[in-house]
Amino acid sequence: MDNNFTIYNSLSRKKELFKPLHAPFVGMYVCGPTVYSHPHLGHARPAVTFDMLFRYLTYLEYKVRYVRNITDVGHLENDADEGEDKIEKKARLEHLEPMEVVQKYLNSFEKNMQDLNTLHPSIEPRASGHIIEQIELVKEILEKGYAYEVNGSVYFDVLKYSKKYDYGKLSGRVLEDLQANTRNLEGQDEKKNPFDFALWKKATPEHLMRWPSPWSVGFPGWHLECSAMSTKYLGDVFDIHGGGMDLLFPHHECEIAQSTAAKGKAPVRYWVHNNMITIDGQKMARSLGNFITLDQLFKGDHPLLQQAYTPMTIRFFLLQAHYRSTVDFSNEALQAAEKGLQKLMKAGETLKKLKPSLTSTADIPALWENCHEAMDDDLNSPILLSHLFEGVKYINSANDGTEELTAADIESLKKLFNAFVFDILGLRDEASAGNDEKLTDDLMEIIINLRQDAKNKKEWGTSDKIRDELKSAGIILKDLKDGADWSKE
RNA sequence: GGUCGGUUUACCGAGUGGCUAGGUAGCGGUCUGCAAAACCGUUUACGGCGGUUCGAAUCCGCCACCGACCUCCA
Is there a single domain that holds both residue A191 and residue A311? Predict the structure, then answer.
């Protein structure tokens, strides 16, 4: 299976030609959410990015197994909560079972992912369902001599590991620097070195989520689940591991160390990281008051939002930026995206009604070529969109009669739209989605005919009234040379 | 403090040496009873200072500013 698909590998810091280990099969693991609160804007970025990657690999006819974990055992907090488990903290506040909290926010996540039109991963394993695998992995690392037990907790021995392997190769960290810069945190006294990390932690008495293990009743360290689950479902070595750039260190670095220590080889061939988002140029944080959940965004229910933005507007907006760039959310930018998306979708509708000519004045094969090139170049969705808008121009011009397209080219354009707009970018026409289209079409035809009668009699008051009232019902009427066209707002 | 990344026209956002993406907004025009849409044309650029080069937004150096990570996080 030949392709020209290149992807930026964080490990080599270069774009590399993508060659799967066992073509046509591709294994892809992406760090999923910790389900302890409603999904927010930040969750949308990796979801859309890796959905697009999944979709493109599938388009290239690879058989992809896409695994995205659900972290539901909670991670330790190091702030004022003194290491209290996040999920437990929330559970006490809301007087719910920890798993009840998990379920609630998991449902919320699943719903938002559907809103954004992301495809389900092949497997969505939960950390709580893989405690045994995690314990086995800790045993393996202990057997290989890269971990040590202290008071029922097990820590990874980074210094020993670094004598044989390269700790820091992904994030560019140097061990000496880490040693010099690591803060003094609570509960670090058990470790040999401050940069060691927990594989298993003994539970304190108030810790609710706990499982038996050979070392103590406790819980797994926070890097362990990804190593255990990726190995279980994708093998010791697999093709792609994705996640946000913020996870590069320490999370992914530790994953590499854990798997390498256990299996003797690096687990991942291509590390892919999406960049972060900002809001009006600032990092999103609760303390800055610009923390926006996806539901708030879809409903316009936040002081910073001038209006609601549909899931597809968000998706389109994210795709207008390259996944490795930061992307800045603002009302102005989102409104621009909304208009752009409408233009694209409208052209898709116009395409269906286009009348063929005997010759073509546009080069559709070149357009295909350009679209492929854009995606092959490290998923350059903004460039792809710019080419698609070239297609939009052809379509609208052909509709206006200033450009000509043969029946074959029109057919080719339809295929191109289906492939790139819908299958690969995963956009969805929200306006035309749904309900009783036939009936609506018939009704609109009647109304338009009545209005035409009024216009023929030059009863402009009547014709304008019809148009205005349709507008207040959310229907836009446009007069053409002969007849009229309509669309939903 | 350390490591890494960024600073592009009104806004968003591509672009790694010459060919000035794209979307949105603005302006002018075509069309039109009016309006909208569409189409055509068009305005405002590459943080600062130096260097390399016939030629730099693009390469190098310094400075300024912004951000990420180093600590739970997408």
Answer: no
Q: Are residues A239 and A330 in the same domain?
A: no
ipTM of the complex as predicted: 0.92
Whether residues A114 and A16 fall in one domain: yes
- Nearest nt to the CA of A244 via C1' is B74
User: What are A240's two structure tokens?
Assistant: 């792609």
The CATH number for A225's domain is: 3.40.50.620
**What is the pLDDT, as a whole number, of residue A77?**
39
Tens-place pLDDT, residues A202-214: 988 777 788 999 9
The gap between A384 CA and B43 C1' (Å) is 27
Structure tokens at A148: 């040590």
* CATH number, residue A386: 1.10.730
Integer Rg of chain A from CA:
27
A270 and A284 part of one domain: no
Strand B nucleotides within 7 Å of a protein CB: 1-6, 11-15, 21-25, 31-40, 66-74
For A98-137, the pLDDT digits (tens) are 888 889 999 999 999 999 999 999 999 999 999 999 999 9
Question: Residue A184's CB: how many other CB atoms inside 10 A?
Answer: 7
Report the distance from CA of residue A200 to the C1' of nucleotide B54 in Å, as an integer: 65
| Closest C1' nucleotide to A321's CA | B13
Would you say A359 and A406 are in contact if contact means Cβ atoms under 8 Å apart?
yes
For residue A20 the two structure tokens come to: 């799967």
